């Protein structure tokens, strides 16, 4: 087995069930005797905290500024001396992240130039490339229903219209990058356990 850890990224529109599947994949990996950690973007670090304020409306910012903050938070996520992902993976720890660069491309790419977003995130993509991008695909209407019953507030992009645009953007991006990145599009409308087994069956070869 390799000395370095593996890096998995879960993508999907809000309410698609990524968090549950991240927990289950972590259990599968740990059952192989491999150290594994969960993480997310935006982070809880100083830049990520500012992103959260923008997303919940506590701080006002335009789309260009928000996209730049996401990219800055991502670089800190990778390079932070205390718990940066590059360091963790070099120690043999597998990392599962809730969101990475495709989230920037899909959410901000609805309104902002893709070339600019790609350049903004170019350093992050050079530093660390996921073994797999795992997209949990669920209809926007279903996601909105889930969030309506599970949250006390909605965030900046959480409307059916915007989530529909974001989902379409994700699928367009995956077609664009299918020759460069390992992308798994997972049907998220099935029972939780079935989805988890589907994901594990497709990534478990990394731990053989």
Describe the structure.
The structure is a single chain. By secondary structure, the chain is an alpha/beta fold. It is about 50% helix and about 10% strand. The chain has 10 helices and 5 strands; from the N terminus they run E-H-E-H-H-H-E-H-H-H-E-H-H-E-H. The chain has helices at about 20-30, 45-55, 65-80, 85-90, 100-105, 115-120, 120-125, 140-150, 160-175, 190-205; strands spanning about 5-10, 35-40, 95-100, 130-135, 185. Strands 2-3-1-4-5 form a 5-stranded parallel beta sheet. Helix 1 (about 20-30) crosses helix 10, helix 2 (about 45-55) packs antiparallel against helix 3 and helix 5 (about 100-105) crosses helix 9. The model has no long low-confidence stretch (mean pLDDT about 90).
